[in-house]
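Q: Here's a chain of 754 amino acids. Please give me its 3D structure as tokens.
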Amino acid sequence: MADQATAATAASPPAAATVASSDPPPAPPGGPPPRVTHQGRVAAPVASSNENADDLPEFEYFVAPGPRGFPSLAEFLDVLEVDTVKKPGESNRLQHRTDLFNTNLLVVRRGQEFQIKITFSRPYDATKDKFVVEFGIGPSPQFSKRTYMPVFITPEQQSAWPGRVLEAAGATVTIGVTPAADAIVGRYRLYVAVVTPYGIRRTKRDDSRDLYILYNPWAKDDAVFLDDEEERAECVLTESGVIYHGSWDDIAERNWNYGQFDYGVLDACLYIMDRAEMPIVNRGDPVKVARVASAMLNSRDDEGVLVGSWTGDYVYGVAPTSWTGSTDILLGYYRSRSPVRYAQCWVYAAVFNSFLRCLGIPARVVTNFYSAHDNDGNLKTDIILDENGRIDRKNTRDSIWNYHCWNECFMTRPDLPTGFGGWQCVDATPQETSDGLFRCGPASLRAIKHGEMCYPFDAAFVFAEVNSDVVFYSRQRDGTMAVVKVKKDHVGRMVLTKAPGSYDRRDITDLYKFPEGSVEERTVLEKAELYGCVRDKSSLPAADVELRLPTLEVAVGDDFQLALEVVNLSGEPRTLEAYVSGSVVYYTGVTSAEFLFKTPTVSLQGDQTVKEVWQVAARSYMRKLVEQANLHFIVTGKVKETGQIVTAMKVVALHTPKLSVQVSGLNKVNEEMTATVDFTNPFSFELEHIYIRMEGPGILSPVFKYYGLIPGGSRVTWAENFTPRRPGTTRMIATLDCAALRQVHGQVQLDVLP
């Protein structure tokens, strides 16, 4: 082994051993098409599986066999034991911040040294003994593709992964290995090879010596380096999160267990890349990993992790509102090799967040309130009115989601000009295709904020989600349309994420857009137009009549009052012919059923304000409710004297009953405790086919209980014993879900003592 290349060549298994056999004969007429293979295009299949791995041979000789065969290597140094220092609480896990992973194997981060202890058959003599520590990943590991990495211990032989002797005590040698800061991320096999003049003798394959190498946001040379300790702790190590929903002026919270350290989750995340047939050599690039995962988290075109459904019918799976965390979803996909049912945007975002954090890529879930889903590349959401000012539901096709959740991940962008790294938007919810697959991102937040729509990936789509204008058209009887009103501040009203180190909200709208009406915002919109984003530039006089719908806080099943204020800003009399519509809507803005329609005519004196009030009975909307209990009120009308169209919109997210969650016990590691869920049916009618789910990071794996019927006014109580596995602050999270009542959840925080 004169140099690194020679050693790599000698230690790599023969390429011919991995070449597939010849193709099968063509299928008979009418049968299935012949199998498509790599032959004739490449010498061997592209390595794209981390699960399927080839072993390195135990012996490799440098010399030809003599009359009595190969010479014996028994007289040379032999390896008796290899200790990867992998137990929880040992130095490797603590220094690499991987102590929370529930696995029997070593987990380390690239760009940082870790230790291996090797016990030989006799004391190691650096002057005459030579050995190599070898790491292989995927099938047919090769030095040229960086899937086979030999680590040399002697100073005269350098490695791509530096190695050194830290301590030699008798026959046991402790060495330090530093994976390159751009190393491939995944599960590696570990061998120790003793080098002799006649050949190499290496340890046999032992699964217990395998190790995982992850991204390292603490290493300055890593592409995901994040120079903020509080943010790193939140976006990589924190398991319990908060996802925001509801409406921008009545924000609701949903707790979620990301579970990135739970047993089996890391293997499930690696399997997702295997299922995508992502080449092993690309898995050290966070840009490529995030883009592949964006497509693989949904099942629309690649049998990915989650099946999306917004129908309200979830009889063949779990309702999106019922999930409490990502663990069941990821493990279910890994074990069944089939997509898991069902998901909506926050489920996609939460599971994607678990995937990114598990691999070591800093990530967070964000919620955009009033999110435009623009499928034609412009910056307009069109609402069609008839000539009298009433909304034309037949011809209005666009919708604005009350909220939409996606992810941000932190990484450099060497494929973009300097300055466009940092936080990147990625979205796994299947909305529109990008390069032929349902995916979105990573898109630089700086590019989005500054209107640089030319940079990959999908910046224009995200830009429209937060910057679109709501344009009202008046449709005449002959089919012609004219712009009558433009609302520029409705879409992208607020973007929220969980604050690091607390359960408070953090408003990050300024990362996506400049203040409405500012000089910077106008400049950005003009720049976006240069890249093909179409805006409406209608110049309309300001209306002298305003409509105002105040904020309402209403619980499911309550009667309430809808109040409309009509304000005359002029000194002249005005008459308004209005249309008031109340509809049950999905959170995506799609109308399910209309339950209220009024046509008041309001006469106002100069500078007068008139309030119109209507009683809304619970019976008018309860039987029409869909899963997230959103009511949408829209008021449109025409001012008789001026012909101007005026509008007002309001989303009311009905508040659901709370689920009481309590814990009792000593709050200590390995001491049994009890979690109790309590719920009372607040309605006069029965609830049927109810599922209650519960889990908590580090304290309770996901469990559920089924109830066939809860009569009106009745109470159910469920107690579950659990034993905390580790100390620290955590949360017990629970949900209750049935067809008649969604979005019922509760949680309790507890501090577990050592």
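Q: Can you summarize the key feature?
A: The mean pLDDT is 90.
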